[in-house]
Amino acid sequence: MGIKIKLAAVAMSILVISGCSNNSQSDDEKNHPTMNHNMEEMDHSTMGDMMEGHMSHDEVVLLNDSTGENELKIPTLLSRDNEEDIVYTVRAQKGKTEIVDGTKTNTYGYNGSFLGPMLRFEKGDTVKIRTINELDEETTFHWHGLEVAADADGGPHDALQPGEEKVIEFEVTQEASTLWFNPHPHGKTSEQVYNGLAGLIYIDDENSKSLQLPNVYGENDVPLIFQDRVFDDENQLNYKSVMNEDGTIGDTLLINGTLNPKLTVNKEKVRLRLLNGSNARNYTFKLNTGDSFVQIATDGGFLNEPVTLNEVTLTPSERAEIVVDFSKLDNGSDLALINEEGTILLPFELSDAGGKVTKVPGVMNDFSLSDEEINLPVTKKIELFGMMNMVSINGKKFDPERIDFTQQQGVTEVWEIYNKPDMMGGMIHPFHIHGAQFKIISRNGETPPENERGWKDSISVAPDETVKIAIQFKHKGVYMFHCHILEHEDNGMMGQVKVE
Ligand SMILES: [Cu+2]
């Protein structure tokens, strides 16, 4: 099967992809990690890399349609180590996984060979997690979106060597939300995530339990982890052979690790918890019928009111919870989740069973952004710039010995994040801050769209865009902030804030 390629309008055409035989072209570069770059700014080694077979940012490999032949896998719920205490064990492991029928792919996983279980906490819980590194290389256990002290956060300072373990303990103080966990060892994050290290965290609270939203896990409350990969001729994930310094993109979509997935649903409202778990690809999710759906939650909690949308875009690490109404569909309806190119990501099959009657409440949360927060002066400025291995934040690459900013615990500050374009355009950088949920004040001076008026831990920042956020850290310690294109992160597009 050939790999489909897309060319940007202003192409600096270096198209050297081994094994590619079927290039289709389009002018549409919307929502892709596309970069048209000034050649003069590149050094020779970068050029050499690109000439030797890495993709340039002028083309994005299209995804293949899902054939729908495999029922979607649902991550298992991780049970506690014993009944009395809220203690969990999470092991990073290697293994072999039958992703493609009849063959075993070498993969990484948590408590299994590929991806991980789902950890479900309740607000107010004191949770202990025993993390164990059973890999042959160092790793860390980072809890993306969780508001914990930095020594429990699993940043690059917290590397566990092979065979090492560490127990962390924290209280769940934040509201109901869909978070996730992944490795964060500096320079190795991209490959470890690519090989399969990623898992889900659900937080429940009194509010989420009282809202009567669809909440039957795996039935009408379904997590969807989107990850694109390239399988080689032996059906292996050979990261080094497909790695792109600017973000590794694949032609094959896995959802929850399932190749060619379909989801069987009852005739009811179904809540889909979308997580962009890809190294670099952006997704704009739509229904193939053009029908609308409602978004009910952002990265870190419920929106105040459901927002009706025809599409929602997620950059790497962002989440959105949406509710799709299947209750009025006929059997035989041809319904699928697609992306902006019309690629079928997830076909739905309607079962004969009638579903539960649930309602999306008109009021779900009391998130607020005060005038005081809006009017705070900007006290931290972030400038994202560069491409390939020449990415930087405020002109600097990550240095574990350097603290870039300090901030007082419990004090709200306004950060201004600017994506500085190069002469030929630039690319979207998804920007993530550890250890806190924040609020978007403005995008280019404008109020953010309705579906971003909620708690966020990762934001898309487009070329030449300035995003202002209000952020407060509940805990102390040194936290990372970085681009969530994992290869940019590994290439040093990361800094540190020390909360005192
Ligand atoms: Cu980036």
Automatic annotation (TrEMBL):
Show the SUPFAM superfamilies listed in the entry: Cupredoxins
Transmembrane domains' residue ranges:
none
The answer to whether UniProt assigns keyword Oxidoreductase to this entry is yes
Secretion signal span: 1-26
Give the keywords, sorted.
Answer: Metal-binding, Oxidoreductase, Signal
Q: Which residues form the Plastocyanin-like domain?
A: 93-207, 246-328, 375-500
Family to which the UniProt record says this protein belongs: Belongs to the multicopper oxidase family.
Q: What is the recorded name of this protein?
A: Multicopper oxidase domain-containing protein
